[in-house]
Design a protein that fits this description.
By secondary structure, this protein is α+β, with helices and mostly antiparallel strands. The protein has 3 domains: 103 residues, no CATH class; 106 residues; 199 residues, Intergrase catalytic core (hpI Integrase, Chain A). The protein contains 16 helices and 10 strands. A 3-stranded antiparallel beta sheet has the order 1-2-3. α1 packs across α2 and α5 packs antiparallel against α6. The longest helix is centred in the N-terminal third of the chain and has 24 residues. The chain is elongated, with a radius of gyration of 31 Å. 18% of the residues are buried. About 4% of the residues have low confidence.
């Protein structure tokens, strides 16, 4: 006895074209698919009851055959797998493979892997318009990064999405810790769990994660992140950059190195992140009601939040000098005349954003390559851009010319971050003291 299906299937015209409609029984929920291969259908001879063309022309016969073939695929999936909803029927159909057994056909469903699932999420964001988030970076780029790491790992990504379980979470955690040295651990695990949660929401997975990634995250030891000394900063600022190049090196290389050095020093002076500094324009420079020249911006990591955090930071004398040095060199009005900033980027367009992200990574590589050349004269191994912001916070917290709240506010971070990484909250006890010495 044939089991009753939960989804109705019908073919009907709409706006001069033929569609296959699938509707969950007992509800008004329906979806439609354009029937491919039928151009300019002769709707005057369309039989709504029979759902076919009632005329014996060559085109009508060919179109009826196309309709039957397209509809049969959906009906086979509907009868064999008995999906609960029209959406489930479409999902099953998208992964269906028809298998011929003698004179009949059966349907096999190609299981959606974790990689397929993430790629689909990325594609949905890529093609989404209108109500799309202001900019795809908040999730789009995170899923791309996660996908790349899973592709490198090579095993978890091929697991069917409905089979992803706690063991895979542990497996991915171990991969990040041991193969990637813990780099970006919290962020990667956050988005891995987010993908699983999305699959659970869609009824694609019923397994629970009990693994606590946060408890296994590598602990940041602030003492291991070194800061530049004042002497090293002074030498960095005054160093003759021509010593880094040979006679055959183009003069523009020295100019590029000078730009990279000023960029790093600007990070230090203003406690900025590289991504925020690259995008600073003259429009970000303002004067407050007391005449203080400030930089005002929204940190990239805070964009797309419900309440975007505006950072206002007073400009130092050296920061102002750097701005004056490059004034007018960017045709788009940016403070730093990087080639990256000479394009008209559309950050709401995923393709444009992806190209921007690629060029941004290349710029960071070039700057860090320059900084690597500066390690020997500075006698500082492992010099990176991040260390200039880190050094700025280290110096500010030691000198205490501002309160911790002001330091955090001007650096676009939190007091807790300062307390966790820069502020000494205890005492190094040497031993007991003779009361007579008090």
């Amino acid at each position: 006895m044939t089991q009753k299906t939960n989804v109705n299937i019908r073919v009907a015209p709409l706006n001069g074209k033929l569609y296959l409609f699938v509707q969950t029984k007992g509800t008004s929920t329906q979806r439609k698919r354009l029937i491919p291969g039928i151009e300019e259908p002769d709707l005057q001879h369309w039989d709504a009851k029979g759902q076919c063309f009632k005329v014996a022309t060559e085109k009508a016969i060919s179109d009826n055959s196309t309709i039957r073939t397209f509809r049969n695929g959906f009906e086979l999936v509907n009868e064999q797998f008995l999906p609960e909803t029209c959406d489930e029927l479409l999902r099953l159909y998208n992964n269906a493979v028809l298998v011929k057994n003698e004179s009949t056909f059966t349907v096999k469903i190609k299981k959606t892997t974790l990689g397929d699932f993430i790629n689909k999420m990325i594609e949905e964001q890529r093609s989404c318009t209108g109500h799309f988030i202001k900019k795809p970076s908040s999730t789009y780029q995170q899923y791309l990064n996660l996908l790349r790491k899973l592709e490198n790992e090579g095993r978890i990504i091929e697991t069917p999405i409905d089979e992803i379980e706690n063991a895979h979470c542990i497996q991915f955690s171990d991969y990040i810790l041991h193969q990637l040295n813990g780099t970006n651990y919290k962020n990667l695990m956050k988005w891995f769990v987010a993908v699983h949660n999305k699959a659970v929401e869609q009824g694609r997975n019923r397994n629970q994660f009990t693994f606590k990634a946060s408890a296994n995250a590598p602990k940041k030891d602030a003492s291991r992140i070194r800061s530049l000394s004042k002497e090293q900063l002074t030498k960095f600022e005054e160093f003759d950059l021509s010593q880094l190049v040979n006679g055959s090196t183009p003069k523009k290389t020295v100019r590029q190195y000078d730009l990279y050095r000023d960029f790093a020093l600007f990070l230090y002076e203003m406690k900025l992140r590289p991504i925020d500094t690259v995008k600073l324009a003259y429009d970000n420079i303002l004067v407050d009601d007391q005449g203080t020249v400030i930089i005002e911006y929204v940190p990239e990591k805070k964009k797309n939040y419900k309440a975007e955090e505006v950072v206002q930071s007073p400009m130092t004398t050296k920061a102002k000098a750097i701005v004056r040095k490059y004034k007018g060199q960017s045709s788009k009005g940016y403070i730093f005349p990087f080639a990256l900033n000479e394009y008209d980027w559309d950050y709401t367009n995923p393709e444009s954003y992806k190209r921007h992200y690629s060029k941004w990574n290349r710029l960071m590589e070039q700057i860090n390559t320059f900084l690597h050349k500066m390690e020997k004269p500075l006698k500082f191994k492992g010099l990176t851009l991040y260390m200039f912001r880190h050094t700025a916070f280290t110096v500010a917290c030691k000198e205490m010319k501002e309160s911790y709240f002001e330091i955090a506010s001007h650096g676009g971070t939190s007091v807790k971050m300062l307390e966790d990484h820069y502020v000494a909250t205890g005492y190094n006890v040497k031993g007991k003291i003779n009361i007579g010495e008090l």
